[in-house]
Design a protein that fits this description.
The chain has about 140 residues and is an all-alpha fold. It has one domain (about 10-135). About 85% of the residues lie in helices and about 0% in strands. It has helices at about 5, 10-15, 20-35, 35-45, 45-80, 80-85, 95-105, 110-135. It is elongated, with a radius of gyration of 20 Å.
Length: about 140
């Protein structure tokens, strides 16, 4: 890790912290749980209900975390007046460049892409299985 990254105000949100991994895993579990509800409802309705609660509860926790991270990031952007500086083409300070770099880094997260892939792939699988169960069983 570079020294300027450690001193960056975005460091705690940009790096792969243990907390970010925990919420990433919560998001994946919620994604899986919500996608298997239909299948589990056909096996045993109580399993379907449990899966629904795990999925919705997991998404609730995951999106609270994402909201807090985005709010903190927006607060720093407002505090440093980065949008105004960029729109008025004012010179940026050295730490403004580091801050913009860390924000762009956090937007290019591998965990985000993995999460979107799981959501997309499991949604497609869930739709195919639901159609099969509803139309052909």
């Amino acid at each position: 890790m570079k020294k300027e990254c450690v001193n960056c105000p975005e460091y705690s949100r940009c790096r792969d912290s243990n907390v970010s991994w925990i919420f990433f895993i919560i998001g994946l579990i919620a994604t899986i749980a919500i996608r298997v509800v239909t299948v589990l409802m056909h096996l045993n309705p109580i399993y379907g209900k449990i899966s629904w609660y795990v999925g919705v509860g997991g998404f609730f926790l995951f999106f609270i975390y994402k909201f807090k991270v985005n709010q903190a990031r927006a607060g720093i952007i407002d505090e440093k007046k980065l949008v105004d500086k960029i729109n008025s083409k004012k010179d940026l300070a050295e730490d403004d460049y580091h801050l913009i770099g860390s924000i762009l880094c956090s937007l290019n997260s591998k965990k985000e892409r993995i999460n979107y892939f799981f959501i997309f792939a499991l949604s497609a699988i869930a739709i195919v299985i639901a159609i099969y169960i509803d139309l052909f069983r």
